[in-house]
């Protein structure tokens, strides 16, 4: 049976943050009766992204800053030098994760990350759909 829930993550400032446990807490109800399925996770923002990466990777944020520096001559500056939209386009707004026996079937070292591109802390809204 399809299941869906919208929820917000805790506020975080700029950086790449491991959120696997926080996401799992919000989707426990949907996972518990799913023998085999898929989680579609979507972030409803254009200045933050979702990615799966190694559980501990401090280089992600630094690498993104080098790929898309704030020092570029940006035209869209209503909210400051808006590198966030470009970074979101590169990283993406959704993930698909297999579910096996009521658990996310991530690899041993994999985790779900929120890539927050705004300097000030924001709470980000996600939509989780389990099929």
Task: Describe what you observe in this structure.
The radius of gyration is 15 Å and the shape is elongated. The chain starts with a strand and ends with a strand. It has helices at residues 20-31, 59-67, 84-91; strands at 3-8, 15-18, 36-43, 48-54, 94-100, 103-104, 110-116, 125-130. It is an alpha+beta fold and 131 residues long. Helices cover 22% and strands 36% of the residues. The strands form 2 sheets. Strands 1-8-3-5-6 form a 5-stranded antiparallel β-sheet, with helices on one face. A hairpin with a 2-residue loop joins strand 5 (94-100) and strand 6.
Question: Care to count the β-strands?
Answer: 8
**Strand order within the widest beta sheet:** 1-8-3-5-6
Q: Rounded to an integer, what's the Rg over CA atoms?
A: 15 Å
Give start-end ranges of low-pLDDT stretches. none
Oligomer: single chain
Task: Kindly list the characteristics that best describe this protein.
131 residues; alpha+beta; 36% strand; elongated
List the helices and strands and how they pair.
Layout: E1 3-8, E2 15-18, H1 20-31, E3 36-43, E4 48-54, H2 59-67, H3 84-91, E5 94-100, E6 103-104, E7 110-116, E8 125-130
Antiparallel strand pairs: 1-8, 2-7, 3-5, 3-8, 4-7, 5-6
């Amino acid at each position: 049976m399809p299941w869906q829930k919208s929820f917000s993550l805790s506020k975080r400032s700029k950086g790449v943050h491991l959120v696997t446990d926080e996401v799992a807490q919000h989707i426990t109800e949907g996972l518990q009766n799913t023998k085999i399925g898929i989680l579609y996770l979507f972030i409803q923002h254009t200045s933050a992204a979702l990615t799966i990466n190694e559980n501990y990777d401090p280089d992600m944020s630094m690498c993104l800053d080098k790929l898309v520096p704030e020092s570029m001559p940006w035209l869209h500056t209503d909210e400051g030098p808006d590198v966030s939209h470009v970074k979101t386009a590169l990283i993406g707004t959704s993930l698909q994760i297999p579910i096996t026996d009521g658990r996310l079937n991530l690899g041993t070292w994999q985790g779900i990350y929120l890539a927050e591109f705004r300097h000030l802390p924001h709470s980000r809204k996600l939509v989780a759909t389990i099929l």
